[in-house]
Amino acid sequence: MILAAGRGERMRPLTDATPKPLLSVQGQPLLRWHVEALARAGHTQLHINTAWLGEQIPSYFGPQPTSLLGMPLQISYSHEGVDFGGALETAGGIARLLPHLSDVFWVLAGDVYVPGFTFQPDTVAAFAQSNKLAHLFLAPNPAHNLKGDFGLGASQTEIGNAIGVQACLNLPPEHPGPRYTYSTIGLYKRALFEAPWCDIPAGNPQGVKAALAPLLRRAMDAGLVSAELYTGAWTDVGTPARLAQLNTPHADTANTPEKR
């Protein structure tokens, strides 16, 4: 599932006429970078939620099914703006699509630029066999989030004995340990969006708005979330200045000190 329903207030006036996930980075829309990376990894059944100027996204990708990089591709849409008058936030949007999602699925935001990320099938398989409800990819803290979001704990050997995989920690404010920024890329299980963790009915027929962080923090406190640190190029394209920097000729798109 790709999250593409946000208004993009901080990106105005660029987002007054274009939804943020369709803003161009290095010659193509942000959203297309994700779709191509998922397709290369064999993930060809995609779901995208929309709200602000949401009609532009299916118009860009065209009639379904389609093909991309020579592979068949099926994209379905959850038009939250049309159905409910606005975005349902992350957990509300996932609950809306839950009847159409697999037991294990990727979730990623459509407004981050992460050109080197690969959606590895072995990571999915290892996560599916674990008892975890979510597996997050954390990034070094950018300038706009210096305090970070979550901590990393002891290694979780049950997740395929993967190097770098650790427990994801909901650290209290007074905790001195380092925190890292959630990259908005993660693996999830349907169970996190069902009772007892989530009380929104599958399909979210009432259009309940709900954030994802409270669900994640409760699951972390129960030891049911793992994470790993991703140190490749990653940018939260949240302001016109960050977008312009990415589109500067020969720009270094790695996690530079300024981005931190």
In short:
The chain is α/β, with parallel strands linked by helices and about 260 residues long.
List the topology elements:
Blueprint: E1 2-4, E2 24-25, E3 28-29, H1 30-40, E4 45-50, H2 56-61, E5 66-68, E6 71-79, H3 80-84, H4 89-97, E7 104-109, E8 112-113, H5 121-129, E9 134-139, E10 151-155, E11 166-169, E12 181-189, H6 213-221, E13 225-229, E14 235-236, H7 240-246
Parallel strand pairs: 1-4, 1-7, 4-6, 9-13
Antiparallel strand pairs: 2-3, 5-6, 7-12, 8-14, 9-12, 10-11, 11-13
The coarse silhouette is globular
Total strand count, please?
Answer: 14
Unreliable segments of 5+ consecutive residues: 256-260
The figure for the number of domains is: 1
Please tell me about this protein's structure.
By secondary structure, the protein is an alpha/beta fold. The protein has a single domain, classed as Spore Coat Polysaccharide Biosynthesis Protein SpsA, Chain A. The chain has 7 helices and 14 strands. The strands form 3 sheets. Strands 5-6-4-1-7-12-9-13-11-10 form a 10-stranded mixed sheet. Strands 2-3 form a two-stranded antiparallel ribbon. A two-stranded antiparallel ribbon has the order 8-14. The C terminus is likely disordered.
For the structure shown, list the relevant keywords.
two-stranded antiparallel sheet, 14 strands, ten-stranded mixed β-sheet, globular, 260 residues, disordered C terminus, alpha/beta, Spore Coat Polysaccharide Biosynthesis Protein SpsA, Chain A, 22% helix, single chain
